[in-house]
Design brief:
The protein contains 13 helices and 14 strands. By secondary structure, the protein is of the alpha+beta class. A hairpin with a 2-residue loop joins strand 4 and strand 5.
Length: 379
Amino acid sequence: MRIHFYEPAALPEIWRDFWKVRVLSRRPHRALTGGPAWFGMMAQIFGGCVLCAEDDAGRPRVLVPLVCSAPPRIGRWKIAQRGSWWNVGGGDLIAEDVSAEDLSEVWRTIFERNPACAGIRFETLTAGALSESVRRSVRMTPGLFWCPLYSGLPHYRLRFGSGGDQGGLWRSGRTLRKLRNRARALERATGAALHVLELTTCAEMVAHRQDWENLMARRWQTRRLGAAFHLEDVEPVAARGWLRSFLLMAGSRPVAGVVGYQGEGVYVYEEVGYDPELARYSPGTLLLFRLLDILSRRDPPQWLDFGEGAADYKAAWATEEDRVDGGLIVRFSFPFWFACRTARLASMATALARRLAGAAVPRTVRQRGLTAADGEAQG
């Protein structure tokens, strides 16, 4: 194979076409966040390059978009390792007939060209033959090892029907009645009528800065993982016309919000928060229902991408799902290998303890219809 590295802006058109075709044919719900335009934005902010590998006939076979990133986490454990890290937004940019030996050459070339590189993080690698080929190729590459982050993680999405289907028509009448009852109960509890604000510019987001900060500060991602929300992070997205966020308000009080992006026929349900004091009324689920109605009536996408991760609300509202794997390709050293394995085991033990604790709670308590403290919109 012949391997080349390009700056994102200098990527030849033949490789851009290969990129777009691969994404649209394999995972069309990632056409925005898995496409070249999104990668170009991220590379412009953090730095990055694109590896392209072609066969002897000059046909594109492998494309690896690499963007600089912070050291990854294994569950709640943050890896401490000297050197730089690269993030790959998926492994579906690899042709099916590429051998593990050829992939091994790709990984070896990346690390040889970047001596300071500590590792590469793969996300949303489609589970199955492709994922196994990547893992096998790493195992046969001297000096590297594969550290799994997750395996078989569900990726949920909702496909909008043709002809402008109204949001919610795919839900049962019983569900719709529950939602209306919850909405009325929430209005009684807050003493104000519910309404939705759609925000598509930075100025509109900044005007509600305090609302966003209050909602996002109480997410489990913030409390448990320290994944703070920064309003400034949406500026590059808004500048490209992709920002489409929503706030559910009870009068002037924010009760739920979703930061979302829309482009390339996809709505990305990215970051969500809600007022935990009102969790019994399922404000996140109420916002999701109204959001779907708005999307289906005005500038409808083809897909709503819930992203990776298991959650009851995703399974309930999604129309399709697949499974993805994630992992790290890391330079081998015994201390780091041991640290990765220890962190992985600790993460697995924590997950098992949570499942056992959840199993001890009566089913009627764990599954309260649409109650979204139930993971509510916490994608």
